[in-house]
Amino acid sequence: MKIVDAKLVVTSPGRNFVTLKLTTDEGLTGLGDATLNGRELAVVSYLDDHVLPLLVGLDPHRIEDTWQYLYRGAYWRRGPVTMAALAAVDVALWDIKAKAAGLPLYQLLGGASRDRVRAYGHANGAGVPELLDSVRARLAEGYQAVRIQTGVPGLKAVYGVHTTDEHGAAVLHQGARPLVEDWDTDAYLRHVPAVFEAVRAEFGDELPLLHDAHHRLTPIQAARLGKDLEPYRPFWLEDCTPAENQDAFRLIRHHTTTPLAVGEVFNSFHDYQSLITERLIDYARSAVTHFGGVTPLRKLFDFAAQYQIKSAMHGPEDISPVGMAAAVHLDLAVHNFGIQEYSGHSALTEEVFRHAYTFTDGHLYPGEAPGIGVELDEELAAAHPYAPAYLPVNRLQDGTVHDW
Ligand code: EZ4
Ligand code: CO
């Protein structure tokens, strides 16, 4: 078999997605997600200008070799743009291989290690009462694990709680310029334990509760928060400190038994190395889409398994249904699955990307369609072209730029 066509589809059915479509001489097609939120067109250029011309003529069955060829062959390694581009190629090749075999992808990854994939949803509120309503809404949708985020008294905007317009609709950006949010770490650290206390008082001890600190704390602040949350037994504390410095986690780990999750902005094994070998984290958060694909992420999870560290793939709306499908197949197959983040997608996005995976009673199922099980409606995609959009930027109250 040979690849005869490689092209990108960039579409914005409510938010931007970049999708690679490979076609073979036998008429099989494969899809891969290359969406890098806020930097989409850089990945488009990387693929269009430097990778797609290399793919035409290759045997799509040679997944490992193609991955190594693109990774080592470029000389310049790693980084989010490169690894999102590689991920799209890798997943499209797996999609083709599984379709050629007539099997859902998870069967090629060793088969199912469990019957279903537990997902967690997002509950957000400007204050505690709205948060409690939001938790109730997630439970009504079937979720059996919930991430809780609230506004902080004195702050205008906070991570996880969208700025809304006069109609109550989420405002994600202002044209080509990111929104600016404000931040005060002390106010946040005072507030979060009370939030956990209120949610536990309302929903009891059993519901798994997660929380994302979104890289905003120093190691000693993260240690303090981990300790303060221990009485409420969080499922995890996510991204508590910027993780370019893996050593920071030694200090945090020394002080708290709150489980730690990190890795949604990581893009290679090397970002995790000492976090895993020193058992400084409990959950590895990388998504297929941002880690170079199923091939390297499977290797990471298998390595992490030797240290009793579990998978917990990033699953926000900015990972397309193509990336989400690949994730659910991998979730089902790896032995050390922990949990899968899942927010669903807008109704329009679900029309553009029709998928075999389903969500029922808080769990995801990949479905039995051959490949990853996603079909792209290219005509509908073309009707919703790219629109510039960015994540917010964070500033302290004196104006200093802070991590978002
Ligand atoms: O901020 O997906 O755990 N989920 C998250 C997300 C990320 C965005 C970045 O594109 O932290 O909401
Ligand atoms: Co996160």
Keywords, separated by commas or semicolons:
404 residues, TIM Barrel, 3-stranded antiparallel β-sheet, 13 helices, binds (2S,3R,4R)-2,3,4,5-tetrahydroxy-N-oxo-pentanamide, binds cobalt (II) ion
Distance between the termini: 45 Å
Helix content: 25-40%
Rg over alpha carbons: 21 Å
Mean pLDDT level: 96
Helix- and strand-based class? Answer: alpha/beta
| Number of helical stretches of at least 4 residues | 13
- State the major sheet: 10 strands, mixed
Q: Number of domains in the coordinates?
A: 2
Name the CATH homologous superfamily of the largest domain.
Enolase-like C-terminal domain
**Outline type:** globular
Unreliable stretches: none
Q: Which second-level CATH architecture of the largest domain applies?
A: Alpha-Beta Barrel
Report on this model:
The protein is of the alpha/beta class and 404 residues long. The protein folds into 2 domains: 100 residues, Enolase-like, N-terminal domain (Enolase-like, domain 1, 2-Layer Sandwich), CATH 3.30.390.10; 263 residues, TIM Barrel (Alpha-Beta Barrel), CATH 3.20.20.120. Strands 4, 5, 9, 10, 11, 12, 13, 14, 16 and 17 form a 10-stranded mixed β-sheet that branches. Strand 1 and strand 2 form a beta hairpin. The mean pLDDT is 96. Bound molecules: (2S,3R,4R)-2,3,4,5-tetrahydroxy-N-oxo-pentanamide (EZ4) and cobalt (II) ion. (2S,3R,4R)-2,3,4,5-tetrahydroxy-N-oxo-pentanamide binds next to loops. The site of (2S,3R,4R)-2,3,4,5-tetrahydroxy-N-oxo-pentanamide (EZ4) has 9 residues, from loops.
